[in-house]
Amino acid sequence: FALVYLSHPSIFSMNFERKIVCLKWLSQLVCLSFVLLSYSQVVCLPSLTQLCPHDQSVALLQFKQLFSFNRSASSSEEYCYYDNSSCHPKMVHWKEGTDCCAWDGVTCDSVTGHVIGLDLSCSWLQGTIHSNSILFRLPHLERLNLACNDFNDSQIWPSFGRLTSLTHFNLSSSNFAGQIPSEVSHLSKLVSLDLSHNGLLEAPSWAKLIQNLTKLSELLLDGVGLNSVGPRSLMNLSSLTFLSLSSCGLQGNFPGNILNLPKLQVLNLYDNEDLSGEFPWFNESSFLKFLDLSTTSFFGELPDSINQLKSLKALDLSGSNFSGSIPGSLGNLTQITHLDLSSNQFSGKVPSSLSNLGELTDLSLSVNHFEGQIPDIFVHLPKLSLLRLDENKFTGQFPFSLVNLSKLYWLEIQDNQLTGPLPSSHIVELPNLQFLYLQRNSLNGTIPFWLFTQPLLEYLDLRRNHFTGLNLSREFQSNSLKGIDLSGNELGGPFPSSIFNLVNLTYLVLSSNGLRGTVELGMFARLENLEYLDLSNNNLSLMTTNSINSTFPQLRTLYLSSCNISKIPVFLNTLEQLEGLDLSKNKIDGLIPEWLWNMGERRISYLDLSHNFLQGFDQYLGIPPTTSPTYLYLNSNMLRGSLFIPSPHTSFYSVTNNKLSGELPLICNLTTLEYLDLSNNNFSGLIPPCLGNFSRDLSVLKLQNNSFQGTMPNTFANGSVLRTLDISHNQLQGVLPRSLANCSALEILNLGHNMIADTFPFWLETLPELKVLILRKNRFYGQIGQPGNSSAFTKLRIIDVSYNDFTGNLPSKYFESWNSMMMVYNDLSELYMTDRKRYYYYYYFDTMTLVNKGREIELVKILSILTAVDFSNNKFHGQIPASIGELKSLHVLNFSGNGLTGQIPLSIGNLKELESLDLSKNNLHGEIPPQLTGLTFLAAFDVSQNNLTGPIPQGAQFKTFSNTSYEGNLGLCGFPLLKECGNKEEAQSPPSPSEQSHNSIFEIDGFSWKSVLMGYVCGAIIGIVFGICIFRRKEEWLMKTFRVRWRQQRKRSKKVPKSWRLRFRGV
């Protein structure tokens, strides 16, 4: 209207003033028009907005009907990253007759009204999505999020490929299963795809899955099975900014170029243990902000070019195989807040350049090989809240630069070699410290007072150091401390009564110190929240009274071993929460009260009454109780009579070293047993046939040192998990049961000291885990023969077939297959062969008897690095095979008491770990190889009663051996024998075996006919008398008659033998 008016010809005929008035009026008119137009749009907007199309509203309501609403459907998923408070059943309020565009979780196009977004994440949905689901009738969907629900292993149907408008697709943590269909590749507009954490989901080839997804920016497939997929084709996704493939089973070499994708900011490959590769070299700056290669097989050193990752905020390389030193250029990553290099093979010193990482909040360098002093860099890291330096080789004192980190809440430096005292109270400011772990170092001095007064400190672990005092002289009260472990130190003096001021303690361990005096157990009632108390192995005398009742309402674990207790405290019967009780190594006698062995509704699962003077069970009539402890240790008491049978719920049961007798009753009812030790008693009769299969969980069975008779039952079942079987020192007869071959997990088989009559059990050679085979002192016979294949007994480390009737040649081919004896183990981190079954710090160790260094010893703890071969006292003949020299980790070798001939193999000089070598009582000839002087750990050497000649090698350990090592070899000379080696004839080789046999009728006690002629030459009378004496007497007669004394050489070389490798009883 205004424009028409202004264009009218009459407007130009007006004078100037009138024109001005008209223009003002027109301008006001225009403004009014705009206001009216805006108002009309606001008023009419609802009538112009499109409603949700009826067909789509119906489809959504039908989709709702397919599911039930269950809170656990969203709360049970481990990887749901939603706050539980935000999870709710969004579809509950969907009602027919209302606009679906207003429904919770639904987004519509503002113009067309089509449903373009559906977010039902964490909506408590439980049900199944079928291939013809109503969901696929929403073709305009651009965003679909069904994460964190429970779809009952539904498939991701190919029909999802019809939703071609999708840009964001999230089905994570919702119990989908099966293969990801290749039709997903039809979703060419996808920017974000998240199918992670669906445990049974697998992916087809990368090529089919991502061939059209060129716009993809975010790809999350964590937990999807990709073990048959090669990730190299990911290089085609140049738009990727976020790539997460954790726990996918990826294998092979990961292409390092992926880290150079131009837009990549997040890469997560966590927990792909078979995925390897080296850390890539960066030629230019990268946009990476988050890099996680933890728990993979990535290896090699970190390159200096790591400083190109200038945007990096989090780097996690833990649990991989990286090595070398940390490059100083790592200190250029000034934006980093999280750095985890733990559990690798890094070594050297921690670079001081890490002081540049001023934004760092979490630093973990634990479980590596770092050494030297902990660098004084932490004063420059004011934001540090978590620091882990444990399990390295750090030395020196506790770093004082740590004591002013005001934001530090977690500090671990355990398992290092720190020495000296902790800092004194006046310089410490750690107001946020909650967890402090300094155990297993060499710290000393007094435990400072400030540790007990930090306002937020909850857990303090100082065990296994050398602290000698506890500074609790001042009165204090801590409301924060919940757990204290000071065990294994050298704390002396009376029990620190100030400990009762820690009113919120739940966990207190003071065991294995030198605390002394009398302690009234009732004092601990002041600690009302106490759940775990261990006072074992001090010099305390614990006093208890029957008046103590219900004063420990929360106590679950009570350890009072070696506390001079003479009676089982009656008040223990009132502790309703008690689960673990250790009263071992006290002076308790009498009977075990019924409430301990027949618990009714009680919950005690661990009971150790071992090493006392207990004699039996109160009111036990031979009927197993309905409930008894899961772990029951009654060993080393004075129990008599028949065996107490616990309830079927018992898993670990030991009564070794008692005086129990009779046959085994009802033992086969213990169907959940894992560990059974009945050794060192007086049990008799037959071994029950069920012992081979009564418990499918049985891992350890020890029946040694009893009087069992008859044959071993042939009932060992397929799938047996038996790892240790010891039936030695009984009176068993017959043959070995062939069903032993079913025990594929068997590691230790000890059948020694019985009367078993059988051939060599070559059929055991296929047992893949067998490490110890003891057949000594039985009636085995025949030839051992040769292995059936090259993998026979490949893990064998100890074999003892001594004192049997084996014949034939030594089994040279078996020697060539014993691979575990060919490798030298210098890592002492796993010293003992044990099942590693542990409960409340309880270990069991396998035992065995072995002849070492000339004496029979019992190994209470079998070192896993110990190797031994004992074929002594049989009827083997022939030569010692040179292949014995391949067993380079041998510590004990015994071929004595056989009929072996030939020379001592030079290859024995290769056995550098050898500590005991016994070749005595054979028919060996020739010289002692000088190469044996290279056996610097050799502590026992015996070649007596052979036909050896020539000089005895000198040097090293050979200076320590006495003449008894060589007696019966008249051709030997040199130290320590009196016979010198001046005559060349004395060093001659003995006659060949055929010549020796031909002249044997002229030999008496080692002297030939030449000796007789010499007697005649020296004179008839003296010669005859002397000759007769020689013929009829042995060397002992010469020593007595002519007072000849062999010189005893007791010197030892400066190199100490590795005698620590053998642990004997009582040592």
Task: Describe this protein's structure.
Helices cover 10% and strands 22% of the residues. By secondary structure, it is mainly beta. Among the domains are: 2-48; 54-145, no CATH class; 421-564 and 574-584, Ribonuclease Inhibitor (Leucine-rich repeat, LRR (right-handed beta-alpha superhelix), Alpha-Beta Horseshoe); 985-1042, no CATH class. The longest helix is centred in the N-terminal third of the chain and has 33 residues, at 16-48. The radius of gyration is 41 Å and the shape is globular. The model is unreliable at 1-14, 34-49, 827-845, 859-863 and 984-1067 (pLDDT under 50).
Topology:
Blueprint: H1 2-6, H2 16-48, H3 54-64, E1 67-69, H4 72-75, E2 106-108, E3 115-119, E4 125-127, E5 143-145, E6 154-155, E7 168-170, E8 176-179, E9 192-194, E10 200-202, H5 206-210, E11 218-220, E12 242-244, E13 252-253, E14 266-268, E15 272-278, E16 290-292, E17 296-300, E18 314-316, E19 321-324, E20 338-340, E21 345-348, E22 362-364, E23 369-373, E24 386-388, E25 393-397, E26 410-412, E27 417-420, E28 435-437, E29 442-447, E30 459-461, E31 466-470, E32 483-485, E33 507-509, E34 516-520, E35 532-534, E36 539-543, E37 557-559, E38 580-582, E39 589-592, H6 594-597, E40 606-608, E41 613-617, E42 631-633, E43 640-641, E44 652-654, E45 659-662, E46 675-677, E47 682-686, E48 700-702, E49 707-709, E50 724-726, E51 748-750, E52 772-774, E53 781-783, E54 798-800, E55 805-808, H7 812-817, E56 848-852, E57 855-861, E58 868-870, E59 875-879, E60 892-894, E61 899-901, E62 916-918, E63 925-926, E64 940-942, E65 947-951, E66 971-973, H8 993-998, H9 1009-1017, H10 1020-1032, H11 1035-1042, E67 1063-1064
Parallel strand pairs: 3-5, 5-7, 6-8, 7-9, 8-10, 9-11, 11-12, 12-14, 13-15, 14-16, 15-17, 16-18, 17-19, 18-20, 19-21, 20-22, 21-23, 22-24, 23-25, 24-26, 25-27, 26-28, 27-29, 28-30, 29-31, 30-32, 32-33, 33-35, 34-36, 35-37, 37-38, 38-40, 39-41, 40-42, 42-44, 43-45, 44-46, 45-47, 46-48, 47-49, ...
Antiparallel strand pairs: 1-4, 2-3, 56-57, 57-67
Helix pairs in contact: 9-10
